[in-house]
Amino acid sequence: MSPLEADVVATGPWLVIGLGNPGPAYAGNRHNVGFMVLDLLAERVGDRFRTHRGRADVADVRLAGVHVLLAKPRSFMNTSGGPVAALRTFFKVDVGQIVVIHDELDIPFGTIRLKLGGGDNGHNGLRSVTASLGSRDYLRVRVGIGRPPGRMDPADFVLRDFSAPERKELPFLLDRAADAVDSLVGRGLEATQNMFHASTARPHP
Which of 47, 79, 87, 95 has the most other CB atoms within 10 Å of its CB? Predict the structure, then answer.
């Protein structure tokens, strides 16, 4: 890589990916919480998504004073990696400036956790992204949805809408996740972890 190319990578935008399945039939599913967070982030800054070369819907925004591309792959969850890799190449984004927002079964509902790298923990969307990028070293915003009740298959659980009690708390969860993304691109991973890992309780007014 030439010095010029290295400079382009270093100063390129952040790429924030929300994982989900396209189409109205899936819009309220637990598996689509990544899309929900991106919709809120775009709404906050008064922007909207536009189709980018047919592979993803992209909003070009600024968060915390930083240039950020919000992207929702138009492929299904299990093949999310192709659009993510294509966007990374087109916009010259360093893998360290890629953030993936996804649902997480092993975290209680209402909890936000952030990390850099790691395995996919059985999440097919993450598996596809990792394979297509050829790296695990991207940032993750993990949105807790909890484990399925009884003996329900996790694959069925994630493709169901949030329960009525969960829907009452969902706006607060999406707000926290959106705040975490804003902090992550503006303040970095460690500072954001310190803020969001310290407490999961809903603050009282």
Answer: 87
